[in-house]
Amino acid sequence: MSPIPFLAVKGGPHERGLAHGHRFASEIADNIETYLRRFAASGLDRASAFVEAERWLGAIASANPAYAEEMRGIAQGAGQREEGIALLNARYELAFTLFGKEAVRAAHGRELAPADGCTTFGLLPQVSADGHAWLGQNWDWLEGVHGRTFVLRVERADKPGFVCLTEAGIAGGKMGVNECGIGLVENGLASSADGRHPYCKPFHVRCREVLDAQTLDEAMLAPFEAPRTCSANFLLGASGGEIVDIETSPDHASGLHAQDGIITHSNHFLSEGHGESLLEKIAPNTLARVDRMRALLAKHRGAVSFEHMRSAATDHSGAPYGICRHPDPKQPVARRTMTVGAVLVDLDARIMHVANGPPCCNEYAAFSV
Ligand SMILES: [Zn+2]
């Protein structure tokens, strides 16, 4: 795989969105089709998906007008209907509501269904070789999205600049770090309470609001703001060495902290109060990955280097559903997942290293804010 594409934008939200949409028009069209196929595989047909997308368009406009303006720019630049871009920006809520329903059905039928997974970690300065705070993530998601992602660098007058890894068509970004040293990685979670509050501020808008923040306190407001439509895990960090993990479900949020300088997470709840945790019912590998990642990093506690982090991210224990995930040929194409991107974020240097696919066979490239 070639290195990940990169786009630097500046100016106001519409101008930035226009540049994004224009540059990645064909990838945006591909992503819309990939999600429509994936939703259809779980029983949400095209027409219903667009009805949902229209509702989300209104929800995003009232939750964060600047974000909605950036989406309008993307739609215009890519030659897409605004509903198509809203479908991408609310795809987390659309997908995870469906996954939760599948998990409930699967648990009753004793069947396994592939769900997405992600493995994340945070390192406090006392455990890293360079004395910096680090975040890392293997982003495991639909095979069809691989190659349709890019690194976005944003420069703007009113808020901090940042770099993030995102999907073509999604304004918010996902993993990233900003010029104040605030960084973010995340994991999908699903709870029996999901969907209780429809059309709240979506996950990807919250990700952008973390990267809008100047302090960790301010960044934490984005995941904490209730109510929420779907569950998610946000692992936040700040240069200088603060790291906080926030598990969220529709009516509850709880903080987790590093133990002996290391925190790891995957796709099941680690704290109480969130209802029934669902993804482990259809993807039990999540239960192993969180501990496996901790063990791989803890071996080098006090001297964890970039090479140690890279090596942990390439671990294949539990293949093909390990930390470094490869497509499972036994699954139908629309449902296949893989590590579509991997990041190692140096919060103190404000540099995000990104591999364009499984890190065992893709080099990390460095992007500074
Ligand atoms: Zn691999």
How is this structure best summarized?
The protein is an alpha+beta fold and 369 residues long. It folds into 2 domains: 6-109, Penicillin Amidohydrolase, domain 1 (Orthogonal Bundle); 117-368, Penicillin V Acylase, Chain A.
Describe the structure.
- The chain folds into two domains: 6-109, Penicillin Amidohydrolase, domain 1, CATH 1.10.439; 117-368, Penicillin V Acylase, Chain A.
- Helix content is 36%, strand content 24%.
- The protein has helices at 13-23, 25-41, 46-63, 65-78, 82-89, 91-109, 203-211, 216-224, 279-282, 285-298, 306-313, and strands at residues 6-10, 117-123, 134-142, 149-155, 162-167, 176-178, 182-188, 232-238, 242-249, 252-256, 262-265, 337-346, 351-355, 364-368.
- An eight-stranded mixed β-sheet has the order 1-4-5-6-7-8-9-10. It has a six-stranded antiparallel β-sheet with strand order 11-2-3-12-13-14, with helices on one face.
- Strand 9 and strand 10 form a beta hairpin.
- Helix 1 runs parallel beside helix 4.
- The longest helix is centred in the first third of the chain and has 19 residues, at 91-109.
- The two termini are 24 Å apart.
- The structure holds zinc ion.
- Zinc ion (ZN) is lined by residues 314, 316, 324, 326, 358, 360.
